[in-house]
Amino acid sequence: MILLEALQAVLAYDVIIAVVIGTISGVIIGGMPGLTATMAVALLIPITFSFTPLIGLAIMGGVYAGAMYGGSIPAILLSTPGTPAAAATALEGYPLTKQGKGGLALKVSVVASFVGGTFSVIVLLAIAPILADFALKFGPPEYFLLALMGLTGVVSVASGGLTRGIISGLIGLIIALIGTNPMTGMVRYDFGIIDLYEGVSFMPALIGMFSITQMLALTSEKNITSGDIDITTIKREKMPKGMWPFIGLGTGTGTVVGIIPGEGATIAAFVSYNMAMAKSKIKELFGKGNPEGIAAAEAGNNACVGGSLVPLLTLGVPGNTVSAALMGGLMIQGLIPGPELFTTHGVITYGFILSLFIANIVFLVVGLFFAPYFAKISQIPTSILIAAISVFAIVGSFSMNNSLFDVWLMLIFAFGGFFLDKLGFSLSAIILGMILGPIAENGFTQALTISAGDSSIFFASVTAKVLWVIIIVLLIQPLFSHFKDKREKAKALKNE
Amino acid sequence: MFNRKYIEIIISIFFIVLAALLYGSADTVNQAVSQASTDSTSTYVDTLAIVLGIAGAIELVMSIISSPSMLEFTKNPSKFILLIISLIGYVWIMEYIGFIIATLLFLPVTMKIMGYKSTFKALIISIGITLFVYLLFQVGFEILLPEPTIFEGVE
User: Fold this and answer.
1) How far apart are CA A357 and CA A279, in angstroms?
2) How far is the first Cα of chain B from the last one, in angstroms, to the nearest whole number?
3) pLDDT value at position A45?
4) What pLDDT is recorded for position A228?
5) A127 touches chain B (CB under 8 A)
6) Angle at CA of residue A55, ends A50 and A59, nearest 5°
7) Can you say whether residue A179 is alpha, beta or left, with left for phi > 0 and alpha for psi between -120 and 50 degrees?
8) pLDDT tier at A225 (50, 70, 90 boundaries)?
9) How far is Cα B36 from Cα A96, in angstroms, rounded to an integer?
10) What is the ipTM of this complex?
11) CB–CB of A71/A31 below 8 Å?
């Protein structure tokens, strides 16, 4: 019944227009190297604030789905991935373009993206309500462990190593302490600044760390794209045979990877790509223009979209930075992620999920007919891009609370984030720490208050034990990879 | 170019000091009406401080034993610093002269700093972007943008 109501709501003309605008904007932003899906969603939140919740979410969902696909266009035509998740696509796509088969690569990319994206939304629709129902049984200790698990997922894949990942997560948790204590109502760590009574809003932090830091990094680049494109040379081609097993492989892998906290679209694309290489009968063509690699990678990164929304919508734990930005959008609309989304706000939540199907159809049509034209947009000079995005970031930060204090905060996060990023600290872990901080603190303090200080409460239930196992596995995984890499390096040195 | 080793040592010490300050503040800052709430909140803050202290100490040891290397923040320091200055300047003047004039100044200046050649085109693009943002936010979505305060009280 709720599903039917949601379907009716999503088929309203204004929602469809919102999805179309969001998806096309996503394809454009995703197609511009240097601009990420996280940045797009973060910059859009202040705008969506003035819409109804469903329209706002439909725009953001469209941007997310569109950006995931859009990254593949310059990757194929210009050898410059629009988003990091499209890096694997560039390995096979650009050689095909050089062989005059750019049209074929674009066709494989858009079809694979559509299948991956659509399947993951079906999984989201099927799993999310069950998981949300299960989450109703969670108590404070489980919520604390859930927040810890979400953070561990991101920390474990931090590029600067486990210790720096942990420190990054802790920075976020410590920043989340600023403001009114949720348990006692007392203001703490505010340094006498009235604007900090409500705590540090994570939207200026998100915009600063994922928009302005990106612009600061772009100052090193003269031109973002490495090539030029003559769109008249791109021919429409048929879908090559034998792609479906690779699309299926990427779709399954991407959906599972997306559900795991911390494992984003880039990992999904590369895992799918490597699996396709292992499975392929024409391995020798990999790196020289094999459409099987594009099929797997693109299905993989787009399948992450639905997968990453599973923990966000059901448990309130964002698995990656894009879903963290989406969480900001949900909260601004007064929607707190968790079981209530599927009961009290069922029509909006199911409507949002159904709108993702429309977003996939929109980028399929856009990709099939207009993809080469989007590659032209990616050639906008960095000088214009830096100036324009900076204005959007500043206006976006201001408009959340009509506060210039938030803008200064955004700049502090931008400059500090750039510095920490260069030193190998994880900005994703910082932002997730800030988001999950209140959940972790409430869960921790409430659990200890209930148990009169007995910490065995965190190990009492079966759910808690399962969550501990997942946390430990997530922590062991990078340690294992670290020692494996060290051993391989030592072996290589010995052989030399 | 900076010496990565020294920067890492300084930042590790910073995290250890932060951990110590946080640990020391836990009891006094997190006072509550009920003793149980005070204790559990303090335990949470203490736990964060202890883990940060340990992680900071590990980082410090790793930095000390690591071999020296250089850290490059940007390939183009002049553009990088000028962008930071123009961003700070933009936000600072916006408070006094409002969004429209501040943006009309910030955009062409930043575009020129970033290497855009044609001044005329830069001005036209700046006017276009400013108008677009103003119409989108203020007119379209009725989201307030900073108003000039410098003329307040002037009749």
Assistant:
1) 29
2) 53
3) 81
4) 61
5) no
6) 95
7) left
8) low
9) 66
10) 0.92
11) yes
Q: What's the pLDDT at B37?
A: 64
Compare all CA atoms of chain A with the CA of B60 and give the residue at the minimum distance.
A163
Q: Are A63 and A26 in contact (CB under 8 A)?
A: yes
The residue of chain B with its CA nearest to that of A184 is: B32
Q: What are phi and psi of A184, to 5 degrees?
A: -110, -20
Closest to A417 measured CA to CA, from A38, A65, A144? A38
**Quick one: which of A344, A339, A436 has its CA closest to A134?**
A339
3-class DSSP state of A187:
strand
Is the CB of B36 less than 8 angstroms away from the CB of A174?
A: no
- Whether the CB-CB separation of A166 and B55 falls below 8 Å is answered with yes
- Whether the CB-CB separation of A85 and A254 falls below 8 Å is answered with no
Nearest to B48 among A173, A390, A418 (CB): A173
Q: What's the helix, strand, coil split of chain A in %, to 5? A: 75, 0, 25
Question: Contacts of residue A49 in chain B, CB cutoff 8 Å?
Answer: 141, 143
Say whether pLDDT at A82 is over 60: yes
Q: Is B51 on the interface with A (CB under 8 A)?
A: yes
Coil, strand or helix at B71: strand
Name the band, by pLDDT with cuts 50, 70 and 90, for residue B38: low
Backbone angles phi, psi at B152, to 5 degrees: -60, 130
What distance in Å separates the CA atoms of residue A83 and residue A35, rounded to the nearest whole number?
A: 7
Give, in order, the Cα–Cα distances in Å from B66 to each of A237, A487, B5, B72, B120: 54, 18, 7, 17, 52
DSSP state of A181: -
- Rounded Cα distance between A462 and A458, Å, is 10
3-state secondary structure of A110: helix
